[in-house]
Amino acid sequence: MSIYVGNLPFEVDQEDVVEVFKEYGEIKRVHFPMDRETKRKRGFAFVEMETPEQE
């Protein structure tokens, strides 16, 4: 299961997201979908935690 994190500024990177979510447990993956045409982040991310309880 992934946690949707929306309304992110384009400047936010993986380290910023990890910093916020690390207090809830071990982070497995952070994914920033990219726009196909502009190759820029789309302003949201998905965070996967190690266990369902942490999500």
Please tell me about this protein's structure.
It contains one helix and three strands; from the N terminus they run E-H-E-E. With 55 residues, it is of the alpha+beta class. Strands 1-3-2 form a three-stranded antiparallel β-sheet, covered by helices on one side.
Write the layout of secondary structure elements.
Blueprint: E1 3-5, H1 14-21, E2 27-31, E3 45-49
Antiparallel strand pairs: 1-3, 2-3
What attributes does this structure have?
single chain; 1 helix; 3 strands
Strand content: 15-25%
Q: How many E strands?
A: 3
Q: Residue ranges: pLDDT <50 for 5 or more in a row?
A: none
The helix-strand sequence is EHEE
Shape: elongated
Strand order, sheet with most strands: 1-3-2
Number of helices in the DSSP assignment: 1
Question: Average pLDDT value?
Answer: 96
Helical residue percent band: 10-25%
Measure the end-to-end span: 8 Å
Radius of gyration: 12 Å
How would you sum up the major sheet? 3 strands, antiparallel
Alpha-beta content class: alpha+beta
Question: Would you summarize the structure shown here?
Answer:
Helix content is 15%, strand content 24%. It is built from one helix and three strands. Strands 1-3-2 form a three-stranded antiparallel beta sheet, with helices on one face.
